[in-house]
Specification:
Ribosomal Protein S5, domain 2, alpha+beta, about 250 residues, 5-stranded mixed β-sheet, 12 strands, binds cytidine-5'-diphosphate, 5-stranded antiparallel β-sheet, exosome, single chain
Length: about 250
């Protein structure tokens, strides 16, 4: 029997009442884990994610060390209880791919040359998933890296755009991701408050060149809003630390 596809847009609004260019509610908190060098908790809609950064620290096994720069490792992991059908623990093809593209998005932003022979480990744990986890994870990882004091060229800020019932919509949630016509996660390098380049771009489904242009504009608009929330989270963490010192 074929599954019935729900209407995703009714009277110009999305299932959760959002406009096409509206993000889900976002909450970001830096420095949530005591034992990590840097950490971050993020909620983007129903996604709940923790990022932890360790390093720069000595790399083991030693033969992996690079005498000219730090090596970056990124592990994306979904908790078994994070999705509707229990996720089998451990890496799978999807999480290995997400870890790889996310590491590649972050690597050029980290000033690796400043930390020869060392390693920077980034762990992201998805506690609850509702579409757009790879982008939410990158947002959290970026804040956690800054929280760890890792020197960076800028901030990585990520958001997905989808095509749903012929409309281009920002930050799709699960139903839109499942039943939509396309899903396009973006990550941007933002420097001095300006989008400098695209750090990640993937595409699942089909979009015309015109729609893709529109998707990019929408993603940039959403990314600037997320960037401000990332910055606020870092500022709050630093002012908290200052108060503690006083
Ligand atoms: O999470 P993201 O959109 O970056 O990646 P995806 O592969 O497009 O997955 C979309 C969503 O499908 C995830 O966010 C989860 O909510 C869900 N999913 C799931 O229910 N079970 C899995 N094993 C993997 C993903």
């Amino acid at each position: 029997m074929s599954e019935e596809i729900p209407r995703l847009i009714v009277d110009g609004k999305r299932l959760d009442g959002r406009d096409f260019d509206e993000l889900r509610p976002i909450k970001i908190e830096a420095g949530v884990l005591r034992r990590a060098d840097g950490s971050c908790y993020i909620e983007m809609g129903k996604n709940k994610i923790v990022a932890a950064v360790y390093g720069p620290r000595e790399v083991h096994p030693r033969h992996l060390q690079d005498p000219s720069r730090a090596i970056i490792r990124y592990r994306y992991n979904m908790a078994p209880f994070s999705v509707e059908e229990r996720k089998k623990p451990g890496p799978d093809r999807r999480s290995i791919e997400i870890s790889k593209v996310s590491r590649e998005a972050l690597e050029p932003v980290i000033l690796k040359e400043l930390f020869p022979r060392s390693g920077i480990d980034i762990f992201v744990e998805v506690l609850q998933a509702d579409a757009g986890t790879r982008t939410a994870c990158l947002n959290a990882a970026s804040v956690a890296l800054i929280d760890a004091g890792v020197a960076m060229r800028g901030m990585i800020t990520a958001v997905a755009v989808a095509k749903v019932e012929g409309e281009i919509v920002l930050d799709p949630m699960k139903e839109e991701d499942n039943y939509g016509e396309a899903d396009v996660p973006f990550a941007f390098l933002i420097r001095n408050g300006k989008i400098e380049s695209i750090a990640l771009l993937q595409m699942d489904g089909k979009m015309s060149a015109e729609e893709m242009k529109k998707a990019l504009e929408l993603a940039k608009k959403g990314a600037m809003q997320i960037y401000n929330i990332q910055r606020e989270a870092i500022m709050r963490k630093y002012s908290r630390e200052e108060e503690e010192v006083e």
